[in-house]
Amino acid sequence: MNLVLPPGSFAATPAPVVEDTVLLGMPQLCLGGLSETWLLKELGHRHWMGLARLAGRAVPDFRAADGAPVYAAFSALAVENADFASLGENDRLTLRSQLRRISRTQCASRHDLTCCGRVVGTVHLVSAFVRRAPGGGNHTVARVALDGLPAPTRTGGGRSDSALAARAAAFRAGRTSQDARFECSQSHDQEAVLEIDPCPAQDFNGAGFLYFSSFIAFIDQAEWQFDGRRAPLATTRVREVYFHGNIDPGERVVVRRLKAERQAGELFHHCRLERAGDGTGLADAFTRRAL
Predict the structure, then answer these.
(1) Alpha-carbon gap, residue 124 to 138, rounded angstroms
(2) pLDDT of residue 152
(3) Confidence (pLDDT) at 136
(4) Structurally, how many domains does the chain consist of?
């Protein structure tokens, strides 16, 4: 279901390119180099602040007509050409970000990562404005169409944010199984399953949703459980995640490894996250990791 906010609620402005440099230290790093969890939290915040700028607002305080808060829920993400293992303490990571509207209900941001002029990755984030039903929890989320934002823009060629949104939509509709970059010829005879009890103080954000970076952390935790002793310092090279739903605090998550394959110096896997109570799909993640 899509809801519409009143016209004239926002004064749209063009989205600028925002560039910052971060001196890497312990909060930004993990044992294998740049922390993907920190990076996604940082880029998620930049995306959220970019939505405020796009709407001509000083802060990202969006409200429905009845005053209910409206949030940006991530529907897809892609990490491409990542070289996180090459980054370490006291390196300077430059983040170059730009956000645009790609449909009536969706916005997308591209974040280019460089270190001393060397490309170390690109991250695409696609979000939709959502709100909870009155009195409802995270199972009752509905999309909200915001008027007053710039008209959707399109870019040609390459693997654009629009293409990511289209792949996610096609996957949810059952029109495709996975991106060609993640084709693998083998799968385990028996699925591997890990059940996780998310911690409200660590895994949920201030809006009460299981944060999108926690989904990735659960996948990495499952990888360590399933294959970690053979890949103790695996780092992401390519990752694509399609988000389908969320949970309320107190609910458990099942990580189900559907496919896995080892190639020379790489590990591929397709994991599905499900709500443990009813089996509802929460996300599908296709990951290629360097060993």
Answers:
(1) 24
(2) 82
(3) 87
(4) 2
